[in-house]
Amino acid sequence: MNPHPHRTRNARDCLSLVLFTVLLGAFPISPGQAEETSVPESATWSSLKPDVFGNRGIEAASGIIAIDAPKRAEDAAIVPVDLKFNPGKAAGRIKVVTLIVDENPSPVAAVFKFGPDAGVTHLATRLRVNAYSYVRAIAETEDGKLHMTQTFVKASGGCSAPAMKNQDEAMASLGKMKLRVFPPNAPGTEAMNRATEMQLMIRHPNNSGLQMDQLTRYYIPAHFIRGLTISQGNRLIMTMEGGISISEDPNFRFEFDSKQGEEIKVEAVDTEGMKFENEWPSEPSAL
Amino acid sequence: MAQSPSRRTVLKCGTALAAAGLLPISIPVRPAFAAEEALPVEEIADGIFAFAGVDALMTKANRGEICNVGFIIGEEAVAVVDSGGSVAEGRALIAAIRAVTDKPIRYLINTHMHPDHCFGNAAFADTGAVIVGHRNLPRALVSRGEFYLSSYRESMGEALMREIRIVPPTKLVEGEEMLDLGGRTIRLKAWKPAHTDNDLTAFDEKTGVLFTGDLCFLRHLPTLDGSLTGWIEQLDVLKAVRANRAIPGHGPIPADWPGALEPEQRYFEALTRDIRAAIAAGVPLADAVKTAAQSERGNWHLFDEYNARNATAAFAELEWE
Ligand SMILES: [Zn+2]
Q1: What is the DSSP letter of B122?
Q2: What is the pLDDT of residue A194?
Q3: Are B227 and A168 within 8 A, CB to CB?
Q4: What is the pLDDT at residue A187?
Q5: What pTM does this model have?
Q6: What UniProt keywords are attached to this protein's entry (chain B) (predicted)?
Q7: Of the given ranges (A34-38, B96-100, B177-181), which has the lowest mean pLDDT?
Q8: pLDDT tens, B127-162?
Q9: Which of A111, B76, B113, B201 is 20 to 30 A from A281 via CA?
Q10: CATH code at B55?
Q11: How many CB atoms lie within 10 A of CB B202?
């Protein structure tokens, strides 16, 4: 679908390099691990995988992590993706989850790292999906193994673009945050789950910067949330290293093992070095 | 074509074709192309012509001719409202203009950024027309133009896409501005974010005809690509425009004014009511969009193509209330 493979490749390389560097720092590469072959083949993924995971082996998720996204991206700018974790099925907890949109100019949407006792069981966010693409999530468990699951999303029809709808509004309220704490057994939560569900929203254009200005022929600089830390008291819940495939106004709905009475703190930093901080009580918010 | 051309239109097209065959030099199309068959326009009011697009997605078969386009003839010059969904449609629109007048095309007004309304801009390159748009239109085209050019390649096909260029406006409108066509003034108004963040309307003071762009949809489900609350709030301002007829962005032409706004207002009310209720109950976005505004399903064409998308955009916007 993309008529500019060369440009896309360059942009992709430079953006994935940023995240690649982060990943290299985080995990030693273990060349001995065998490649799991049961995962569906995709030419894009085959060329992308070494950039992100080197030559590490990746196994099928087998229930450790599950992904859900609509079959068709209704709005290319806002595609909901839902991840469920079942660490009971793995040897050890999930430490890191990497979320990838194969065909996007910047495929690595986000890398989430979870605190050792955060107990995150569910994480939903929203993505930009530029073209027909696999959306995949790769979980790393404490034993260093990688487990992958994926779903295919068809691009939206009509004039839906993965771009901002209301650019002035996005900038006018930059950095504004909202945290919702859901009461137990709210719709969309797992029944009988003791985890607490919250939703964090951050106003930010999360601008891709990959479009070329037709008049000047220069690329617009990217402006997005690159780092996010959510903690409770002194306990880390999760961090996110983000990219431009996360939708405008980044939105994270998650379930974790909340400690009653301890405040939720959020720190976000964007590519222009702006820092946004906020904190809230952890009791259910009025609906 | 969307509808059978009126007798008068047929006669005009016939004249144009004859002229094209006999005197090709008088037809202002690029020599590389055969003279385009004129778009079957209708005369809506004195000196105001419009073509009704089909309620469909843009395809190779319909050449992207899915929105309503038109033109206004003054004593000295012509203003065109939207160039259509392909350069081929733009050329056919120029042929329709040339079938009724040889006055110069002074302005091409782009009502907003969507490809069905401005993919035809390149057809006007040789006419000398100044392209007019909302102050935000160039920015929107920069953000989306390249994506539009690649994402429509599959449905529109290489032959149509090859000619299409993203041509931004050079005359920008903020607030209100008048265009003079000689003995005829067109009042342009740049709106706050609604259908998009670059909606522009054109009102002909002489006949009271309002070109609404996509601020008004009839029969074709409205599509939301700006601000739902902004659109709803501005419906009252829009209703107060003292027009007696309208050319909506999509749907039958001409339309009663302001009655033409009622169906979309009813749809927006259903959509906001359902989405607000879902947000309040904590229903996740992916689930909420499956049921929102389903009560409106029987009232619109292309409901299944666009409603979930509108609901998604509405959810992301209303969540911040
Ligand atoms: Zn439109």
Answers
A1: G
A2: 64
A3: no
A4: 64
A5: 0.86
A6: Hydrolase, Signal
A7: A34-38
A8: 999 999 999 999 899 889 988 999 999 999 999 999
A9: A111
A10: 3.60.15.10
A11: 26
Q: Which CATH architecture has domain A32-280?
A: Sandwich (2.60)
Q: How many domains does chain B have?
A: 1
Mean residue pLDDT across chain B? 90
- What letter represents residue A249's amino acid? D
What's the pLDDT score for residue A170? 82
Of the candidates B113, B116, B110, B98, which has an alpha carbon nearest to the alpha carbon of residue B49? B98
Per-domain residue ranges of chain A: 32-280
Unique residue bearing structure tokens 């843009």: B58
Asked if A35 contacts B181 with a C-beta cutoff of 8 angstroms, the reply is no
Please provide residue B63's backbone torsions phi and psi, each rounded to the nearest 5 degrees.
55, 25
Q: What percent of chain A has pLDDT over 90?
A: 61
**Which residues 24-83 in chain A show a CB within 8 A of chain B?**
68, 70, 74-75, 77-78, 80, 82
Q: Which domain holds residue B18?
A: 5-260
In the chain, the amino acid numbered A202 is: I
Q: Are A57 and A35 in contact (CB under 8 A)?
A: yes
Residue B25 predicted with pLDDT over 60: no
Give me the mean pLDDT over the B268-273 stretch.
98
Q: At a CB cut-off of 8 Å and minimum separation 6, what does A270 contact?
A: A204, A223, A224, A225, A226, A276
Single-letter residue type at A123: L
Distance of CA A20 from the midpoint of ligand 1 (Å): 39
- Which of B86, B262, B272 is CA-nearest to residue B161? B86
C-alpha B113 to ligand 1 mean position (Å): 7
With 80 as the cut, is the pLDDT of residue B36 above it? no
Set of chain A residues whose Cβ sits within 8 Å of the Cβ of B119: none
What secondary structure does DSSP assign to A9-58, as a single string? HHHHHHHHHHHHHHHHHHS---TTSPPP--SPP-HHHHHHHHHHHTT--E
ω into B254 cis (within 30 of 0): yes
| Contact (CB, 8 A) for A77 and A160 | yes
Checking if the pLDDT of A188 tops 70, the result is no
Report the residue from A68, A74, A159 with minimal CB separation from B289.
A74
| B290: in domain | no
Distance CA B83, CA B94 (A): 9
Secondary structure (DSSP) of A196-234: EEEEEEE----B---SBPTTT-PBPPPB-EEEEEEEETT
- The CA distance from B24 to the nearest CA of chain A, in Å, is 34
